[in-house]
Design goal:
The chain contains eleven helices and two strands. Helix 4 packs antiparallel against helix 9, helix 7 runs antiparallel to helix 8 and helix 9 runs antiparallel to helix 11. It has a two-stranded antiparallel sheet. Pfam families: p450. Its main location: endoplasmic reticulum.
Length: 264
């Protein structure tokens, strides 16, 4: 009886594995048939197009821009066995964004949680719907008007900063990102972060580090497993960035809590 029970269990496991393999094969076959007319760079078995994204984040960005120039409007990329459809056309994008089926996130968004948490960008539909309804009220015109002074103040600070850099080659995103952080902290938390004029503020660099690393993990399959990633130089750098980010955030909100405690 024991032998029969073992054989039944083994048979059930084998049938389950077989059904899983067949189901996966049929899903991939359906995907191949659906996208066979889509242009894109040559993909290889198992790795897909992952070989195109070797290098630092600058190399990866340049490679993506190069591919976008070669395949305009819409094209496909394979990262391992995972298919990505890249849209580079505003009309196509508008049709996609109108679809009610795009709010559920793919598993790649889980990597971004390291940098942005479980907010609108990464949250599952159930959380996303709740947060979106709350945020819709914040962006009503009557509330936006109350933010005007803060927006103007930090916009002027950005202009003054850029005026000091006339004639120099610069990364405009660096300064716009810092200005955006200043506006968010001032509006949402009533805190003057002043990261735009305080180059020693580590918050923007820590967020940048986490976002760049998240993009590398999405595009570089060998960095996906945690056990490998956190033992690489990039993974160790992320731990340092996370520590800085936690310290900055804790200090900011501790100061805000003490402010309300003593003055309200």
């Amino acid at each position: 009886m024991e032998f029969i029970a073992i054989m039944i269990a083994i048979t059930a496991i084998l049938i389950g594995l077989f059904c899983g393999i067949v189901n996966n094969f049929l899903n991939k076959l359906y995907i191949y048939n659906t996208i066979k007319g889509f242009p894109g760079p040559k993909a290889y078995p198992i790795i897909g197009n992952a070989h195109l994204f070797i290098g630092n984040i600058g190399d990866v960005t340049n490679q993506i821009l190069k591919i976008s120039e070669n395949y305009q409007s819409i094209f496909r990329l394979w990262l391992g066995m995972q298919l990505f459809i890249v849209i580079n056309n505003s009309e196509y994008m508008k049709n996609v964004l109108k679809s009610p089926n795009i709010t559920e996130k793919s598993e790649e968004y889980g990597i971004l949680k390291l940098a942005v948490g479980n907010g609108l960008l990464t949250a599952p539909v159930s959380v996303w719907n709740t947060h979106r309804k709350f945020l819709n009220k914040i962006f009503l015109e009557k509330y936006l008007k109350s933010y005007t002074d803060v927006l103007v103040h930090h916009s002027i600070a950005l202009i003054k900063k850029l005026e000091t850099l006339i004639g120099e080659e610069l990364d405009i995103r660096h300064y716009v990102f810092r200005c955006t952080l200043d506006i968010i902290y001032d509006n949402m938390f009533n805190i003057r972060l002043n990261s735009l004029i305080n180059e020693n503020c580590e918050l923007p660099e820590s967020i940048d580090c986490l976002m760049d690393t998240a993009m590398q993990r999405i595009l570089k399959l060998w960095l996906r497993p945690d056990i490998i990633f956190y033992n690489t130089a990039v993974g160790k750098k992320v731990r340092t960035c996370m520590s800085h980010l936690d310290n900055i955030t804790s200090n900011v909100f501790l100061g805000q809590t003490l402010f309300y405690f003593f003055y309200y």
